[in-house]
Design a protein that fits this description.
- The protein is an alpha+beta fold.
- The chain has one domain (about 1-100).
- Helices cover about 25% and strands about 10% of the residues.
- The chain has three helices and two strands, in the order βαβαα.
- It is globular.
- The two termini are about 20 Å apart.
């Protein structure tokens, strides 16, 4: 099980977020990252899955847009500290590699069929 939380959303000081109910995802911060961390922390405190990771995603396109970001903690030995994928889809590439694996980088798939 893996979590992907955006950590690079910065508020735009020229936009009145509070006056607009934080209704601008490119200008207003979003609390999904700290909420997600609290959620996943509860999973770890009970009975953690055998493979569990919470990855920080940088350069998000908006508060929760991890698909276009970069993931410095995802297999840094293969990606030099930044999984950047094709174009600006590093986050999506990292998520896909985590689920189905990657032969060149020798990443084992986490989504596997289990027999009963």
């Amino acid at each position: 099980m893996s979590a992907w939380l955006c950590r690079s959303v910065q508020a735009n000081p020229n936009f009145a977020c509070a006056a607009n109910n934080n209704n601008n995802y490119n200008s207003c911060p979003n609390n999904s990252s700290p909420q997600g961390q609290l959620f996943y922390q509860n999973i770890l405190s009970t009975s953690p899955p055998p493979h569990f990771a919470v990855y920080a995603v940088d350069n998000c396109s908006n508060a929760e847009g991890v698909g276009g970001g970069t993931v410095p903690g995802f297999y840094p030995q293969y990606f030099g500290g930044t999984q950047s994928g094709g174009g600006n889809a590093g986050g999506m590439t990292a998520i896909t590699d985590d689920m189905v694996g990657s032969t060149p980088a020798q990443i084992p798939p986490q989504c596997v069929r289990r027999s009963h």
